[in-house]
Amino acid sequence: MSSYNLTLAFFMSYYTVTAHLMNRQFRSLRRSQLDRSFAGAKSLPPRPSGGWIAGVREALGLSLADIGRRLHVPRQNVQMFERAEATDRITLATLRKVAEAMGCDLIYGFVPKSGSFEELAERPARESATRDVQRVVHTMALEDQKPENTSQLIEDEAQRRLHRGKAK
Q1: Which of 10, 12, 42, 168 is most exposed, with the fewest beta carbons within 10 Å of its own?
Q2: What distance in Å separates the CA atoms of residue 98 and residue 111, rounded to the nearest whole number?
Q3: Where are the chain's structural domains?
């Protein structure tokens, strides 16, 4: 192999490893940003049974006709929007227009059902580590060599998998 090809191969490998590490760091940073951005979202109330359009409209003392005039549509359309929202059949564009007509902003996002985005991202590695360690512990138990610290072994293996390939 010529020195040019060897040098090229080295830089290609270096670039691949660097790009992978940067992607991993970027994803970690993005998860941290999302966790901070949505920190208060867990305390938001669930959508009212009649939907946000009806709930906000009623709270502001606006009629269907009031909203219809602001949107330049008949009041029946606003009523259809309310029903569509309550049954999860409304588009984001329509929700955004109705929110604007009521002097509101539409806030849209995904929030983990439990924990943080970081925990959500770590879950597959933790689940596979738990499954693999429990298999080994089961085999060791059959040989009367079961370790006492299974939880610690699982955590150590999860951490090893989560930090594999990270820059030191």
Answers
A1: 168
A2: 23
A3: 3-38+112-162, 52-101
